[in-house]
């Protein structure tokens, strides 16, 4: 393997690690979500309260990174 290919491989490995870490710290909320949702884009939380509680749980287990909560489009009843 030449130096250029090796450099590209290292860059790709780092990019994958960064994107994986970002995915772990992003939670989704959607009016189409449900109470058993896990906060992923495919299984979003139904409420901001669920997202808040999930963040608190992660902090309690040692999370010390920023968490991004993405609120999907829709009508949210207060």
Task: Break the fold down into its secondary structure elements and pairings.
Elements lengths: L2 H22 L1 E4 L18 H13 L7 E4 L7
Parallel strand pairs: 1-2
Description:
The structure is a single chain. Helix content is 45%, strand content 10%. By secondary structure, the chain is mostly helical. A two-stranded parallel ribbon has the order 1-2. The chain is elongated, with a radius of gyration of 17 Å.
Briefly say what this structure is.
The protein is mostly helical and about 80 residues long.
Tell me about the largest β-sheet: 2 strands, parallel
The total strand number stands at 2
Distance between the termini: 59 Å
Helix percent band: 40-55%
The strand line-up of the biggest sheet is 1-2
How many helices in DSSP terms?
A: 2
List its salient traits.
single chain, 78 residues, mainly alpha, two-stranded parallel ribbon, 2 helices, 10% strand, elongated
């Amino acid at each position: 393997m030449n130096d250029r290919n090796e450099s590209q491989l290292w860059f790709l490995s780092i990019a994958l690690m960064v994107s994986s870490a970002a995915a772990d710290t992003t939670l989704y909320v959607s009016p189409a979500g449900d109470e058993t949702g896990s906060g992923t884009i495919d299984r979003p939380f139904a409420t901001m309260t669920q997202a808040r509680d999930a963040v608190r749980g992660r902090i309690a287990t040692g999370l010390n990174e920023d968490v991004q909560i993405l609120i999907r489009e829709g009508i949210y009843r207060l």
